[in-house]
Predict the structure.
Amino acid sequence: MQTKPKRQGRYNHLLLKKISIIFLSFMTVLILLSFGYKINEGIRISVTNVRSDRGTVLVSLFKDGVGFPDNPEKAVKRIKLSLSSNKAEVLFTNLTAGTYAVAILHDENNDQKLNKNILGIPKEGFGFSNNVMGTFGPPSFTKASFQHQQGQLTQVTIRTKYF
């Protein structure tokens, strides 16, 4: 009966340990690369010029003009964002290529609607992609729209407007 020297057993143990470390490192790199890929794909919306951190920002992403801007239930994506340092940001992912537009509302009293005065003038902040304004009311989808290519990152910055 022949036994292996202790040295060879230790060598195998160290080799196995190195292979495990290399494998785990490789898997970690793969996970980080896939995570980074997803962060750089979609539509990133940055809301700036918010007058206070009170309330929330409601963001509605519309595709092909359906429901824009007065019917947020028809938006392809909607979210309520908290404010920090008078701004908010969101990344919408898993979107197909196409024509999109964004409408935002600084909902200061959290009632989920745009409050207006007796003349119909908004009391809360609002904004649209391309930072466009309508003449007497909201802008058209065409003026607020932009193109998004699938697999790409589209950056949209909206300055909140107040009256």
